[in-house]
Amino acid sequence: MKLDFLPELPFALSQPVLFGALLVLGLAAGEAARRYAALPRITGYVLAGVLLGPEATNLLSADALLDARLLVDLSIGLIVFELGFRLDFAWLRRNRWLLVTALAESAFCFAALYATLSWFGFRPLLAAAAAAIGTATSPAVVMVVAHELRAEGQVTERMLLFTAVNSMAAYLALTLLLPFLYFEQASAWQDALLHPLYLLAGSVLAGLVGCLLLLRLAAWIGQREEGQFVLLVAAVVLTVGAAHSLNLSVLLALLTLGMLARNLDRAHVLLPLRFGHGGQLFFVVLFVLTGASLEFASLATAAAVAVAFIVMRFLGKALALLAFGRLSGIRPGGAGLLAIALLPMSGLAVVMVQDTALFYPSFGRELADVVLAAVVVLELAGPLATQFALRRAGEARPDG
Amino acid sequence: MDEMSFSRSAGLSVGVELELQLVRPHDLDLSRDAADLLSRLGRRKLPGAVKPEITESMIELNSSVHTGCSALLAELEAMRAAVVQEAGVLNLRISGGGSHPFHDWAERRIFPNERFRFIVERYGYLAKQFTVFGQHIHVGCPGGDEAVYLTHMLTRYVPHFIALSAASPFYQGEDTSFQSSRLTAVSAFPLAGHMPFVADWAQFTDYFARMRQFGIVASMKDFYWDIRPKPEYGTIEIRVCDTPLTVRRAALLAGYAQALAAHHLAERSLQPARAVYLVNSYNRFEACRFGIGGDLVEPYSGVRKKIGQDILESIAKVAPHAAQLDCREALEELAAAVRVGQTDAGWLRGRHAARGSLADVVRDACARWEKDA
User: Fold this and answer.
1) CATH (domain of A143)
2) Do A153 and B39 touch (CB under 8 A)?
């Protein structure tokens, strides 16, 4: 008896096995967080990621995480597409104060972070880059928490709108800092100017092309829900893939795709967007992978900076919302809750740091030390804050 | 029994209540922002009043009391414009129509106030299913006896009001084949139906006192009748209309009610008859199901005819009174629409046929309400 039909030991863990295990563990941890600790499911996914990641069992090694980057991009792409799809230009036209509030929210937050980091003695370029990344609220966290609580209402809508705006502002600011980074590295001035231009114009163009394709095909397919679902997923995957291989920004391309799909669809050929359970799959993947890439070591070295970063980030956002919130038509008390809801930082910040590190490893390392410690804290505290704010605003379903 | 003493109101004055849909633009489903919208409207100087309704997806406009329907229309127009403007700040859209075509009733949330909480406690899921949108028309009566008389007289016209206002062909994502599906949601309530066959206000207050003694009702509000006397306002209230797709049509319907009341109070040519209630539920069903194309059995003569035909005849009959009340043109406009078979339910089905999705129907209905001039 040779039994050579049996596999050899130790079993080689194939990609599908790893992927399936990641899903099962994430799902179970999310459910456990919900049932036994009344925490948002996201917190469970993240903890599962931490357990699997290099900081604990190393089942998801740093290399594996790098390989999984496309999955992360796909998930973020899907989420920011949906976020962009909620951004209604007509609302901003009717309610100018809303636009003012959204811009002030980003500007105040950036200013507060820049001032704080300068005070800690970081050089201007580093402070500005970290402040830019800190300006963004995590699109994934606010979307997922809003989905999970089935929240609807003014605080929820504005939270999504401001997140779309501050994510875009963050990316824009970070990209506009690139020339200075080139100068710091004494590169050619052509590179310094062309790189940000390529990123911004290229990503917007990718979104625009994807959008035109989507609208054309949707008009041809007609208002069949199954058909449009496949089409939407295809448009998102295609645009993510294109952005990925062209070294463009997935965030900007997909946000553009979503925004334009909503606002250029004059003939209303697109049905209301419903990713349903399919979207949930990507949420689990995204947060487990984000959890795995958290670096707790940075927390110890940069604790004071992280605390100041988080506090001033909140104050910057809160100040803008309290100053302009009422003018934009939010109810009394809503502005404060909104500031709390906008706390989360997550995968997007990690991705922005990674992207910068790709081109400028040493600068990326410095940036990571400043930003990622705050991300560790907000990755865990952020979902709770958003959940609290939406519940307190009375916009979550009681059984949500 | 203070509640039952009939207030004096200017005879034949008219006022309306309109329940409106709050729609969120991103998926055209019902939103739940009534509280935010109401608090914004509360800070504006508005004619009439704006009030919460049973679920957070609705608000109710109350006009003030008017003597003619052009003044009523002007006021409704001003209220409409204010509501649309404030809704715009909150990124909400507003629509008329008797039902939202595809919302899921289980998703609705009850507006947090004591009366609505009581209704949920009492009626369970019926309360959330009650997220339908109606127009109530108040007509002023000189006294309680007149109110009872008019209630009996106008019951004969209930199918007219249903057919003329019908604007709820779609419900829970389906074409119901009805012109007005909304009234089915009302019929489920135990105290729905019509006023008992009482001869005058004294008999009516006796009836009410007994019902209260039995513990079946606490106030007049607990009766969900098609037409009910409202002693507090000194009016009778016609409650069978769907909210039309425009304020204009809402004002026309009020003008028709006013002219009918004027005719019956002035002529007194008919006496209340049990036959009216014999044919009532049949006529009512025909109106809900087929609208102006349905059949109606005329209770006094026993003649069967088309509801549309009966409307045209009755408009001609009350025309002299309409002229005195400044609603003659309103009635002509209603009659013209009946002649060509134009109704809001038909318009909604037309939009669905042209566009292919119920979301588009909602979008078009919102645009129609918001642009209405």
Assistant:
1) 1.20.1530.20
2) no
Q: How many CA atoms lie within 13 A of B127 on its CB side?
A: 19
Of B193, B199, B203, B249, nearest to B225 (Cα)?
Answer: B193
Chain B contact for A152, CB < 8 A?
yes
Chain A closest-CA separation from residue B183 CA (Å): 29
Interface of A with B in 10-69 (CB under 8 A): none
| CB-based contact A153 B36, cutoff 8 Å | yes
B68/B66 Cα distance (integer angstroms):
6
The span from the CA of B13 to the CA of B230, in Å, is 14
Number of domains present in the structure of chain A: 1
In a domain, A44, yes or no: no
Mark residue B99 as left, alpha or beta (left: phi above 0; alpha: psi -120 to 50; beta: remaining): beta
Q: Where are the domains of chain B?
A: 2-371
User: Which residues lie across from B306 on neighbouring strands?
Assistant: B295
Contact, A288 vs A373, CB < 8 A? no
Considering the domain boundaries, does residue A181 fall inside one?
yes
Residue A93 sits at the chain B interface (C-beta within 8 Å): no
- A272 contact residues in B (CB cutoff 8 A): 26-29, 359
What is the domain class of B2-371 according to CATH? Answer: alpha beta
What's the pLDDT tens digit per position in B274-315? 999 999 999 999 999 999 999 999 999 999 999 999 999 999
Which residue segment(s) compose the domain that A272 sits in? 62-392
A86 in a structural domain: yes
* pLDDT tens-digit map of A351-397: 888 888 887 888 888 888 888 889 989 998 999 999 999 999 999 98
For B84, the closest chain A residue by CA position comes to A94
- A331/B91 Cβ within 8 A: no
Tokens of A393: 């605003």
Q: Which residues contact A201 (CB under 8 A, 6 or more apart)?
A: none
